[in-house]
Design a protein that fits this description.
This protein is of the alpha+beta class. Helix content is 19%, strand content 19%. It has two domains: 11-73 and 82-102 and 137-178, EIF_2_alpha (Alpha-Beta Plaits), CATH 3.30.70.1130; 179-365, no CATH class. It contains seven helices and nine strands; from the N terminus they run βαββαβαβαααβββαβ. The radius of gyration is 21 Å and the shape is globular. The structure holds ligand L6N33NVT and fe (ii) ion.
């Protein structure tokens, strides 16, 4: 009963694709589901990339309206359908598809070296990294989020098909996620698969987005873009579930049920990182996740988190294989690195998690009506 009024989701809602600020899917309140996929280029011609970006943009503009991309059942007998059909009759479900570009795209092969956004480069190697190459990198990324998983899946399926049919790109790695694990403005804080509220102290206001998320420097076509960090983080949930809840609270520095910091009583109480108990011990332990990640302890560094829970079924021991598809947006990827360098070295959470996949992508601003994402790369 507690959450019911906030859980009323309007499946008929649409987010516009075209605009004159950032792409949808960055500061948009997180929808319930995600289908994330990366791609590698399969051709050395810049023209193929240009055609792909133009066709992707045109297709996304249709998809976000709940429309099919071309025909499902062509009138000419013997022809293949353009749209695969599984979203026919479904609502737009607030679909957003966000296009990202990896550092490996900005090479001489495509004549793009000089166009590379200043902070776009492979992420630094970070403590506790356990990255698998087959779950990392990519020349392009697509983040499809919607309140209906079939709508998100359909979008990626149609876009992957366009990539293949233009001969421009092939799939690299993918994660399907559910149960948004971060809150946007006016959203109830959801829970991650460790059972804790996730996103309590996330960025929510336009002024915070302007300060920490949107790029404000460089050529005009990069401004209002952002950097997308993606980490596939495996969570050992079976081990976690054998742990005492009092210990789990110490790991995060918050109470599991209420989400309140250990120094307070309500979810949105500001954590007091100096508070000590009667024995003189820090109430929020030195290795607690929130102490290490908080902006108060990182020279004001803040990032926008837009993560989702995921599952890969069972591992080869028959244990639940699941985790967090961590996604953050920031106007400099060094901000993520600052936090993860600290977390990777000292976070009490490290006993239960492993970063197995990683990517960094530049997210250009939205396309203006009549244009497409990344058009400025070719002028
Ligand atoms: C490098 C950035 C971060 C990674 C990687 C990360 C992984 C991760 N986090 C949780 C669960 C929680 N995180 C919470 C807070 C929090 N986490 C980060 C950054 C990363 N987390 C920040 C900046 C913050 C906010 C800190 C603050 O200012 O107080 C919380 C507490 C609730 C909240 O504020 O969101 C939880 C819970 C998991 C499970 C995880 C990897 C699997
Ligand atoms: Fe976190």
């Amino acid at each position: 009963a507690e959450a019911s009024e906030k859980e009323n989701i309007d499946l008929s809602h649409q987010w516009p694709f075209y605009g004159d600020h950032g792409q949808a899917g960055v500061t948009t309140p997180p929808q319930r589901h995600i289908m994330f996929m990366t791609f590698d280029m399969t051709t050395p011609t810049a023209q193929a990339l240009q055609i792909l970006l133009a066709r992707w943009s045109a297709a996304i503009a249709q998809l976000v309206q709940g429309a099919a991309v071309g025909t499902v059942e062509p009138s000419r007998i013997g022809s293949v359908g353009t749209d695969t059909g599984e979203a026919v009759g479904l609502d737009p479900a607030s679909l957003t598809v966000t296009i990202g570009m990896g550092p490996s795209l900005f090479t001489d092969t495509y004549g793009l070296t000089a166009k590379c956004p200043p902070h776009l480069r492979p992420l630094a190697a970070l403590p506790s990294d356990n990255l698998q190459p087959e779950l990392s990198g990519g020349d392009l990324s697509l983040q499809a989020c919607a309140d209906d998983p079939q709508v998100a899946y359909h979008a990626i399926r149609v876009l992957a098909r366009i990539a293949k049919s233009t001969g421009a790109a092939q799939t690299r790695w993918t994660v399907m996620g559910f149960g948004r694990a971060s809150a946007g403005k006016d959203q109830e804080t959801p829970r991650n698969l460790f059972g804790f509220k996730d996103g309590t102290r996330n960025l929510v206001d336009a002024s915070e987005f302007n300060q920490h998320v949107w790029i404000k420097e460089g050529p005009a076509w990069q401004q209002s873009g952002s950097y997308q960090v993606v980490r596939k983080i495996k969570m050992n949930i079976e081990n976690w579930d054998t742990d005492r809840v009092s210990d789990q609270n110490q790991v995060f520095g918050r109470h599991k049920l209420s989400g309140a910091p250990l120094s307070g009583t309500r979810e949105f109480d500001t954590p007091d990182f100096h508070k000590k108990d009667t024995e003189g011990e820090l109430v929020i332990p030195a290795t607690a996740h929130i102490r290490l990640a908080a902006h108060e302890n990182n020279q004001g560094v803040r990032i926008l988190r837009r993560s989702y829970n995921y599952t890969d079924g069972l591992n080869h021991y028959g244990q639940l294989d699941a985790g967090l598809l961590f996604i953050s947006y920031q106007n400099d990827p060094a901000h993520f690195e600052t936090l993860q360098r600290k977390l990777g070295a000292a976070d009490a959470l490290n006993e239960y998690i492993s970063h197995i996949g990683s990517g960094l992508f530049f997210v250009p601003p939205a396309a203006k009506e009549g244009s497409y994402i990344g058009a400025e790369l070719f002028s």
